[in-house]
Amino acid sequence: MKKIISTSKAPGAIGPYSQAIEVNGTLYISGQIPVNPATGKIADGGIAEQTRQVMNNIGAILEEAGYSYADAVKSTCLLSDMTNFKAMNEVYGEYYKENPPARAAFAVKELPLGVMVEIETIAVK
After folding, report:
1. Which of 84, 72, 19, 13 shows the shortest CA–CA distance to 45?
2. What is the pTM of this model?
3. Strand 20-23 and strand 2-5: pairing?
4. Residue 26 is part of a domain; what is its CATH number?
5. Which of 29, 40, 105, 114 could, after both became Cys, cross-link 121 (CB 3.0–4.6 A)?
């Protein structure tokens, strides 16, 4: 059975989608952008600060659903510029020190609200 996951500790959806969906012990987290849920504004700073906000948003959704970063099995990272990969990767690695999930990273033409990074995650219990 499909369960909608939503928390005020991560930014609300800006379109017709859910923050996350849980089905049969698998959590599918929609792409998270670096919007601070408390202010509704994009995180100040560069790619490191934006990546940290994205990862915190993912963490809030994981927690709401009863999961943790350790349950993540796949992430897809979208970057506005591949020159930001190294800095994004350093921050991302802070959240997955052991047994990191499988991952793909792509540069795309542009991202919502002009942000530098968007990350979607799948977690399994």
Report:
1. 84
2. 0.96
3. antiparallel
4. 3.30.1330.40
5. 29
Query: How is the chain split among helix, strand and coil, in percent rounded to 5?
Result: 30, 30, 40
36-88 per-position pLDDT tens digit = 999 999 999 999 999 999 999 999 999 999 999 999 999 999 999 999 999 99
DSSP, res 75: E
Instruction: Give the pLDDT confidence of 81-108 residue by residue, as tens digits.
Output: 999 999 999 999 999 999 999 999 999 9
pLDDT surpasses 90 at 113: yes
With tokens 């943790």, the residue in question is: 68
Distance from C-alpha of 20 to C-alpha of 92, rounded to nearest angstrom: 20
Closest CA relative to residue 35, chosen from 72, 74, 3, 61:
61
Closest CA to 66 of 107, 30, 22: 22
Contact by Cβ (8 Å): 117, 56: no
Structural domain count, the chain: 1
Residues in the chain: 125
